[in-house]
Amino acid sequence: MAKSSEIVMQKHRVKYKDGLDSQEKARYEGKLQLIDDEDPYEMTASMFSEDVKLLPKVTYPDIVNYLVFSPSPYTSDDLKSYKGLEAYNQFVCGWVRDKATQVINNKCLVKATVLHSQRMSEKPLQPWFIAEKEGRILAAHSALLFVVDATFQLRESKTVTEEKSYWLLPTSVKGVSYKQVRDIDFTSAKTMKKKLDAKLKSGDTTPTICKQKVNNIPDPTVDELSLLFKSLSEINSKPAILSLIPEYQEIYVPQPMKENFPTILTEMRDDSALELNYVDLLKECKNQFREISVTEEQAKAVENSTREQSNSELWYRFRAGRMTASKMKSACCTDPTLPAQSFIKSVCYPESYKFSSNVTDWGCQHEKFARDIFTDKLRKEHENLKVEEVGFFINPNVPFIGASPDGIVTCDCCGQAVVEIKCPFCKKHDSLENASDDKNFYLKKDNDGNLKLNTKHMYYYQVQTQLGVCQMESGYFVVWTEKDLHIEQIVFNNELWKEICDKSKHLFITAILPELIGKFYSRLPNRQPLKPVVNNNLCEKESKSKDNEEELWCFCAQVESGKMIYCDNEECPIQWFHYTCLGISCAPRGKWYCPDCRKLSKFRTKRGKKK
């Protein structure tokens, strides 16, 4: 009977492989080559061992390196987002069970069973991963990785009895039964994770049995409940319980959404574009660019709804994919033929690139104080002056550019002006006179000895972009330290604004849109890693020998025509590319790799090292 069951299981698992399309099947078979072409779905349970000593030494850094730097073509952006932690939630909630290991070709093949948290009756999933014994992950499913990480931590530790404390691992869920509300464990996955991490780190390896304390509390009277509901209705919030009480329900009736928002740029993703080559994708991007528009009404709705700025989810959503003021200097200086992938991804996924440090914390903590001092100083010279905090501005004339000033100054005598405030952490105890002696500081003395913002600095580009987007003629650049305050009025530079619009438009079409629409820089290269490049073969090609006249080149698979450029990767399968197909007009500086080759890790590393 067992043998018959195994045969049926093998047939079912073979169908999984055969049911893949040609590209997916090729990728799947590429992973199997790591383990001598053995298919985990064709292997029987008897071929695996539950001995935890066979598990690879997978740790959290190994998981991060794999998920962030080697994502699948279709989920790379998801892996970098907060939802990527759902895999850990599956582990701590006990949905992952029956892990087992098989060592093949000095590599560890680990598989397990994962239950559906919302559909317990459905057949469980059977993920697997391949890793080296020392922990480097070669191919994986993330939920299973966290199980092995925790198991490895316990394997390396011992209890007071010198036995491994595997009982600390979350208990595998066998099934979900109906219970009364009071008997249900509502502990969140986040809290479970904290408790598990604390146990793993603290060395608390003594099993304990939690006993729930039962309190004999009498039921409330009608008068007591009425008083409670009345008190809740008088606070400045909307407690959910009042939505169930008839006399308080009116304020909970949802209002129709009045805001007329423009399209979120990250929603431009097109699954049919995920397999397009760069040239075809670029054509699609140019077509889609013509469809991007923002009305005056939509721009006002965005600004009004994002005034909490970094504390607003909408602020990140409308920034995503747009060239923002704080990044405009980088956008204008980036070589459009070799755009930095880190820049592209920070534009497309700003929420994934946010961070906190002493520098940012200092600026956030003192910005309001600096604004108040600035307001007090200007109020003496202007009529009815006020400084308002604002949200994210989009200029309908250039809907791919956005800006978030630190405020807008309004007065009866001068109209409106933007405000940008800086509180430099590295100069917080210095006077600005002394700070200007630092060659890297953005304030410099002019011929008259007055401190001025360096017009080559990124902050100058930031203010000019804010003026252009907000359509204002002047703005204030404010620098505050504990010893000094600098207030400088910046006049709109129309010539620089034109340069900003032209360069950012070109970069938006050729670099940002390919990522937004086709995930071009997130998806993995569509061929195997190549050998190291030995020589720099960068050169321009006006014409080649007649012997090669009929050969086809470039993504477009056409014969040579006009200017062409050679990929510096000697094993690039295409080699020669048309300037027109790449959207470039002149030769790039230094080594040049085609859009496909530049995604390979070895070339990204080399460019990083050169810097």
Automatic annotation (TrEMBL):
Domain of life the protein comes from: Eukaryota
Domain named PHD-type: residues: 551-600
SMART domains from the UniProt entry: PHD (SM00249)
SUPFAM superfamilies: FYVE/PHD zinc finger, Restriction endonuclease-like
Xref: Pfam families: YqaJ
InterPro entries: PDDEXK-like_dom_sf, Restrct_endonuc-II-like, YqaJ_viral_recombinase, Zinc_finger_PHD-type_CS, Znf_FYVE_PHD, Znf_PHD, Znf_PHD-finger, Znf_RING/FYVE/PHD
Keywords: Metal-binding, Zinc, Zinc-finger
GO BP terms: DNA repair
Recorded GO MF terms: zinc ion binding
Protein name per the record: PHD-type domain-containing protein
Species this protein is from: Mytilus coruscus
